[in-house]
Amino acid sequence: xxxxxxxxxxxxxxxxxxxxxxxxxxxxxxxxxxxxxxxxxxxxxxxxxxxxxxxxxxxxxxxxxxxxxxxxxxxxxxxxxx
Length: 82
Known about the structure:
The chain has a domain at 22-76. 34% of the residues lie in helices and 34% in strands. It is built from three helices and three strands, in the order ααβββα. Strand 1 (23-33) and strand 2 form a beta hairpin.
């Protein structure tokens, strides 16, 4: 992805070469959702140095049961499964 961004943006390539990037922390977390049970998700946290900006992204590995559970939650939403 970085290669594509560098090729498409001279400014991005310049910033990348200067090291003007945030710090990425990656981990895997298992949470228990009340409607679908256990979900094992990748958790990526991007921190921008000298700033209090943080971006937190949860995602599921393709082809896993967690993907199916997230898709179910997208349909069910906040509805009650009584």
